Amino acid sequence: MAAEHEKWSSIEELAAHLKVHKDTIRLWIKKNEIPAHKIGKLWRFKISEIDDWVRSGKSAKIGSNAD
User: Fold this and answer.
1) What's the confidence (pLDDT) of residue 63?
2) Given 1, 19, 40, 56, which residue has the most CB atoms within 10 angstroms?
3) Which residues contact 9 (CB under 8 A, 6 or more apart)?
4) CATH code for the domain defined by 3-57
5) What pLDDT sits at residue 5?
6) Rounded to a whole number, what is the distance in angstroms from the first to the last CA of the chain?
7) Which residue pairs from 41-46 have beta carbons closer than 8 angstroms and sit at least 24 positions apart in sequence?
8) Per-residue confidence of the chain (67 residues) as pLDDT tens digits?
9) Are 47 and 9 in contact (CB under 8 A)?
């Protein structure tokens, strides 16, 4: 499947893909730490972008600057 035809995924689908809670995804969105796109009132994700983000190591740095 070509990248331009990749389906948009919901928070629920992304949470299942990453095996994290939906609230974790929402927190990452709030902190601008995850590649996310707002379409209308809904957040949507491209799994290829998320996988690239994870492979880049940026996901491992979340929370490393704890207060």
Assistant:
1) 61
2) 56
3) 17, 44, 45, 46, 47
4) 3.90.105
5) 87
6) 42
7) 42/10, 43/10, 43/11, 44/8, 44/9, 44/10, 45/8, 45/9, 45/10, 45/11, 45/13, 45/14, 46/3, 46/6, 46/8, 46/9
8) 455 689 999 999 999 999 999 999 999 999 999 999 999 999 999 999 999 999 988 776 666 544 3
9) yes
Look up tokens 């996901």; give the residue: 59
- Residue written as token pair 């600057």: 65
* pTM for this model (two decimals): 0.78
Residue 13 CB neighbours (<10 A): 14
pLDDT for the residue numbered 57: 83
Residue corresponding to tokens 């902190």:
31
